[in-house]
Amino acid sequence: MDMWLKEGQIENAAMTYKIKETLVRKKTEYQDLAIVDTYSFGRMLLLDGIVQTTIKDEYVYHEMIAHIPLFTHPNPKKVLVVGGGDGGAIREVLKHPSVEKAVLCEIDKEVINECKRFLPEISCALDDARCEIFVGDGIKYVHEHKNEFDVIIVDSTDPFGAAEGLFGGSFYKEIYDCLTEDGIFIAQTETPFYLPEVVKRVYNDANAVFPITKLFMAGIPTYPSGFWSFTVGSKKHDPETVDLSNSIDIDTKYYTKKLHKACFVLPKFVEDLTK
Ligand code: SAM
């Protein structure tokens, strides 16, 4: 008998995946967690029925959310990842030798535990000596730390439930205060194809707080529409015009120095959301 998973992030449209087996399924304190093995994307983490990451396409999201801000900052030493319990963003952050400490602030310890168990390719750097894991609410953590991080990565679930407060002006002001004087923040900011109003609102909220705000896109096959946006807020360094000629080479599959510049060139309907 064939088993198919229907992902339901977007109303009235859905992606389906043929499943080999369910590796774990449990209700945590915060969400319904499942890791399933699929024929087309390998093992896949779902939270509340929404695909978070898969073995086959995870590199696009994790490389872009980490390397755009880390190659923009001239000397990133201390990095905070809010959410991101699968560990993929931390794995990419720790490819930068300048990073002395990377803090992961994830609200749901079960995400960390199950990703360590079933997605070792993604979670492999969570045991690195430079990684510190804090289980708790990112909103509270950011509020309690001032002027501390060179880069903050908001690798969150969609703007509902525990992650709702991670999108919006008051959180971006707290992030601004948590960053050092030339700090940079980045967040995954949803699909401009299905949720243009969310992308526009988040961009405007970040733009009201940061002197430099830029939106870029990456192609992520398992996210609705494949068109995915990220928003960068920076106090000093512009991610689009930064000089990358002397930046180090690291091992990547999606990110390149050329793409770092090119990803800020937006399709018209997305560019319009930033006006
Ligand atoms: N790449 C993913 C995506 O866009 O689909 C996000 C993956 S990551 C697993 C998202 C994580 O954010 C989840 O594990 C969730 O528990 C965590 N999270 C949600 N709200 C949070 C909060 N307020 N503080 C810290 N972590 C939070």
From TrEMBL:
Free-text function comment from the UniProt entry: Catalyzes the irreversible transfer of a propylamine group from the amino donor S-adenosylmethioninamine (decarboxy-AdoMet) to putrescine (1,4-diaminobutane) to yield spermidine.
Binding site for spermidine: H62, D86, D155, S156, T157, D158
SUPFAM superfamilies: S-adenosyl-L-methionine-dependent methyltransferases
Binding-site residues, S-methyl-5'-thioadenosine: Q31, E106, D137, G138
Keyword ATP-binding in annotation: no
Family designation: Belongs to the spermidine/spermine synthase family.
Superkingdom of the organism of origin: Bacteria
Name of the protein described by the UniProt record: Polyamine aminopropyltransferase
Active site per database record: D155 (proton acceptor)
Keyword hit for Endoplasmic reticulum: no
Biological process per Gene Ontology, one example term: spermidine biosynthetic process
Protein species of origin: Clostridium carboxidivorans P7
